[in-house]
Amino acid sequence: MSAQLLLVDDEPGIREAVKDYLQESGFSVQVASNALEGWEWMQMNTPDLVISDVMMPQVDGYQFLKQLREDARFQALPVVFLTAKGMTGDRIQGYHAGVDAYLPKPFDPDELVAIVENLLARRAAKTASTGDDSETPDLAELANQIAQIKALLTQRNAISQSPAPFKIDLTPREQSVLNLVAEGLMNKEIARRLETSVRNVEKYVSRLFSKTGTNSRTELVRFALEHGLAK
After folding, report:
1. What is the pTM of this model?
2. Pick from 98, 126, 154: which residue ends a domain?
3. 201: domain CATH number?
4. Which residues 6+ apart lie within 8 Å of 205 measured at CB?
5. Do 101 and 26 belong together in one domain?
6. Digit-coded pLDDT (tens) for 30-66
7. How many CA atoms lie within 13 A of 19 on its CB side?
8. Under 8 Å between Cβ of 198 and 191
9. Are residues 57 and 115 in the same domain?
10. Fewer C-beta neighbours within 10 Å, C or N terminus of the chain?
11. 143, 72 in Cβ contact below 8 A?
């Protein structure tokens, strides 16, 4: 599966040209015309890397990056600045803000691809070295899913319901766990509410994934809301 990139740039010509080149290089690219639009998209999606312009109206790249770094979900997310501002002071400001790479315009698109590939490879190596095979969920990813679930719940009344496409039999305990997941609670909170262990909650959540054919808490809650499974 190709890496998902978010490209934020208010110049349509540059945005489309960079998007096309990155897609030709094998990446999946979501575009946003400004930081507000990019941030809104990220409330329901988590890219593998963000490429952002600096000089943008309303919210500039530095403010956007600060917003990302202050959110637990995106603290470790690789970010590349593309900008016409190429002075040393500007680059230093970018690095102090937490940017991973800074590429002044005009730039060679092959250099951008090399930077993206390098950052993604480093992130993958870091994930592997910290024990990706452990069953403990990544806290940033879990926080991201909880935020997405809460966003879903605000739209709950607007979600049209239909019967599930296949028969789903849930045990009373699985139903209880599903209801609490659909409230946006984390495993520790669910375990406390049900007076059981976090490990048991993880097992129930895994069973719910299997029974509903979903792969994440966000997908599970969306499925439950669409098919009237959450009480």
Report:
1. 0.57
2. 126
3. 1.10.10.10
4. 177, 181, 187, 217, 220
5. yes
6. 999 999 999 999 988 889 999 999 988 888 889 999 9
7. 16
8. yes
9. yes
10. N
11. yes
